[in-house]
Specification:
By secondary structure, the protein is an alpha/beta fold. Helices cover 36% and strands 17% of the residues. It contains 13 helices and 14 strands. The strands form 4 sheets. Strands 5-4-3-6-7 form a 5-stranded mixed beta sheet, with helices on both faces. α12 links the parallel β13 and β14. α2 crosses α4 and α8 crosses α13. The N terminus and C terminus are likely disordered.
Length: 418
């Protein structure tokens, strides 16, 4: 197929970019490497790319010209004032490719259309007391066509696929979600990827929701500044992810970074240890102190529907007092969990983010750092405790990024694939 610029006729993204069907492994690797470098740095010239990759300038030029013709890169204005020929910086073309994302949360579902630079072009949201498979498939079937239709017809061919970010074993959370007995049993044998593939462009990829959020922070957010970090993502339940040597580490089962299961000492407001479920005296899992379902229950205790947190996700000012009490409790648990993490891996940074307003995140990070400073840290390497940069959109962006990263992301094993 003859390639043509995006503004003419992009053609199907999988056909025009082949990704291994009409290219050698080395050529594919070089393309992915260059795209990943430009994604990380924002703008790079051909000389910059040659220096960073060790490729010859001739090879770099051939690859980048091809990526520009494919509509994945766009050239900026020439940089003058340097010795030699003016250099041209290249950046990713936002319209070069798109991904669809689906976030299955315990209290809400989001569908997004995302461009090549993580710009969310369109978002739709459904809230519920607890997730049911048929309800979510119906929502997706009604909504995905509208998301796709917001793109011009030629650009629709550049949708790489659909990514789903969702918790594992949803049926295990009936009691905490206060759902009727066996209401979530339908998830046990439900193949979400197979069902979504019937109504949305494929391929369809699935990843744990907190791991997807970590991938978004690493790829599109401030996480790229750190070579190693532990990532805590707080939603209805707290989860997380691990980044080692600049790469997401999902673990053998895809469940690495299950920080919600870490044991911590629960403290009452008087400072005394409390008995916790599933552990010895005063011990409970982090999920029972640093999850938003706890805040929901605290709101319910004073006559406020906890569902309002999800109906007004960007403004919690009306819940100021309960939110402050929750931050205090969550920060103590997070500080202990961070100490446990650092006893295993000397992470350069600890990143805290979640499905709450930025102001809540900032206060939680500050309070957690203060609580961590009060702990006995002898033998632990110092770390930075910082806020994430993706916020409520992290899981959606991570989900929508799955088909994009699968198609264009750097893959260290690509040279050895058939």
């Amino acid at each position: 197929m003859q390639r043509s610029p995006l503004h003419d006729d992009p053609g199907p993204v999988h056909a025009s970019h082949g990704r291994g069907t009409n290219q050698t492994g080395v050529r594919l690797y070089n393309e992915r490497l260059i795209l990943s470098l430009i994604r990380r740095h924002g703008r790079l010239t051909k000389v910059d790319i040659a220096r960073l990759t060790g490729l010859s300038l001739q090879t770099t030029t051939v690859v980048m010209n091809r990526l520009e013709a494919d509509g994945l890169l766009r050239a900026g204005e020439r940089q003058r004032g340097r010795i030699g020929q003016p250099a041209v910086p290249y950046s990713l073309n936002p319209d070069g490719a798109y991904g669809l994302g689906m976030v299955v949360g315990r209290r809400a579902c989001e569908l997004v259309l995302m461009d090549f630079v993580a710009g969310v072009r369109r978002r739709e949201r459904l809230t519920y007391p607890y997730p049911l498979p048929d309800q979510l498939i119906g929502f997706a079937g009604r909504t995905f066509p509208g998301l796709i239709a917001t793109l011009p017809t030629p650009a629709q061919a550049r949708i790489c696929g659909t990514g789903i970010a969702m918790p594992f074993e949803l049926w295990n959370w009936e009691e905490v979600l206060e759902a009727p007995k066996d209401a979530l049993a339908g998830w046990r044998d439900f193949d979400m990827a197979a069902e979504i593939s019937r109504i949305a462009p494929g391929p369809v990829r699935v990843l744990n929701d907190a791991t997807a959020a970590c991938a978004a922070e690493l790829t599109f957010g401030g996480g790229s500044a750190y070579r190693d970090f532990a990532y805590f993502y707080i939603a209805t339940f707290i989860g997380g992810g691990i980044v080692l040597n600049g790469s997401l580490f999902p673990g053998r089962s895809g469940n690495a970074g299950a920080f919600g299961s870490m044991p911590v000492v629960a403290r009452s407001r008087t400072g005394d240890a409390e008995g916790g479920a599933g552990g010895g005296a005063g011990v409970q899992q982090l999920i029972r102190s640093a999850s938003l379902y706890r805040l929901e229950r605290q709101l319910g205790a004073i006559g406020i529907e906890g569902s309002q947190l999800w109906e007004q996700p960007d403004d919690w000012t009306r819940f100021a007092a309960p939110v402050e009490a929750w931050i205090e409790e969550a920060a103590e648990g997070l500080a202990q969990a961070i100490a446990s993490c650092l006893a295993v891996v000397d992470f350069e940074a600890i990143v805290i983010d979640g499905a709450f307003p930025a102001a809540v995140r900032d206060r939680l990070v500050k309070r957690t750092a203060a609580a961590f400073a009060r702990l006995d840290r002898q033998g632990l390497t110092e770390t930075r405790i910082v806020g994430g940069t993706m916020g409520r959109a992290a899981r959606a962006i991570g989900g929508a990024a799955l088909p994009l990263l699968d198609t264009f992301g750097r893959d260290l094993d690509v040279l050895f694939k058939d």
